[in-house]
Amino acid sequence: MRKKARILSAIFSALALMGCVSAPPPAAPSAPSTESSPGRPASSLDEMRRLLDLGRTALDSNHPAEAIRSYVTVLALSREEGTAEAARLGTQAEAELVRIGNRLSLEPGEGWIGPDGSQVAAASRSVGKEGALQPSVFLFENFAAAKSPIADAPIRFEFVRGGGVLTASASTDTLGRANAILSRLDTPSSEAVVRAYPAFTARGFTYAFRNVQRDFSYLPPSNVAKVVALERGPEGVVQNPQILDTVASILKGAGLSPSPLDGKLLGSGFDRAFGGDPASVRALAASAGASYLAFVVSEASPARQMEYGGKKYNIFTSDCKTTIRIIRDDGTVVFALPMDPVRGQGGTAAASVSDAFLKARETLSAELDRRLSEIRKAVDQ
Q: What is d(CA 281, CA 263) in angstroms, rounded to the nearest whole number?
């Protein structure tokens, strides 16, 4: 019995001892980890720091376009995050972009370089035609004594004067070259200017290197029109044709600046130019710095004497046919108008021819006045 009591006492003592043993203290709450756990996206700040490192690495390995994209993305994230730390990282990225921008240059394509090495302008009326100059640039990163082309950089093209149908953006190739396509100008009679500049976009945010740009000008033709008139009668070509001043005065109303010339002075060269001979047209236009040529030809038939019942009367008639043709210095036709013959009458053969020329001038003048808006529109195209 005593033995049993001793055993029970030992058991109770052991249980009491076990109850006095303290449990381990609860673990202290751990600080939030700044490391990204597998399967979880990095925070915006971590991503910005990573992109800054990527940008520096890309620059060191001569991949400036990749570096720029990284820095532009940092700027975009800094605006999304809105914290002081994000702003600080964004400022770092912007400083890097400024440093890169100071080394960039945008040069015109080969076709835009004149014989003296300067950039030339293109003709607005050549736009949309085969062989027309298109906006074209080369993007380089410049170093102390050399430059390196930048590939895979987006170049934006936009009108800063005028308007039309233009490629909005193109990426540079391995040579740093980017080409746009200008297929139409809204107003070919006015100057148009296309500007190219690098512009990188990330997460809806665009960073443009506005200090790195190249402008391309498309100039309209001059409004000088060489007006060449010829009156040809039975006795040959008339000196100082009166129709010359009549046509020159009317063409002023179409926005042209006429430069009159007596067609008789050209001799056989008049017929060659009037017939569209390219060399003759170019030479005649160049002689006056003209972009347009206006040819007027009036030809009077030999006088006919009225005869009735076998008796001749001192009444003579002559028919005069007049044609006007306005062309550009490249030979393309702007406006053409062949007039129906008009009849002149007089007491002598010479008087009837003179009257025919006069009536032809009056008829042509009235018709040109009526079609003035048509001529102006044709010139503007």
A: 13
pLDDT (tens digit per residue) in 99-110? 999 999 999 999
Q: How far apart are CA 44 and CA 42, in angstroms?
A: 6
pLDDT in tens, 340-351: 999 999 999 999
**Rg of the chain on CA atoms, in Å:** 43
Q: How far apart are CA 55 and CA 73, in angstroms?
A: 10
* Sequence-ordered list of residues with C-beta below 8 angstroms from that of 107, at least 6 positions apart, any chain: 137, 138, 140, 214
CA-CA distance, 45 to 51, in Å (whole number)?
Answer: 10
- In 3D, which of 113, 114, 183, 177 has the Cα closest to residue 149? 177
Q: Which fold has domain 104-112+119-219?
A: Immunoglobulin-like (2.60.40)
Residues 188-218 have pLDDT tens digits of: 878 999 999 999 999 999 999 999 999 999 9
DSSP 138: E
Tell me, which fold does domain 224-380 have in CATH?
A: Double Stranded RNA Binding Domain (3.30.160)
> Which residue shows structure tokens 């060191």?
60
CA distances from 192 to 121, 162, 186, 219, 355 (A): 10, 5, 9, 7, 48
Domain ranges within the chain, ordered by starting residue: 44-101, 104-112+119-219, 224-380
CA distances from 172 to 56, 70, 137, 160 (A): 22, 18, 9, 22
Beta bridge mates, 148? 141
How does DSSP classify residue 209? -
> If pLDDT is split at 50, 70 and 90, which confidence band does 258 have?
very high
Task: Give this prediction's pTM.
Answer: 0.64
**Chain-centre distance for alpha carbon 102:** 26
In the chain, DSSP finds a helix count (H) and a strand count (E) of 9, 20
Orientation of helix 44-60 relative to helix 84-101, angle to 10°? 20
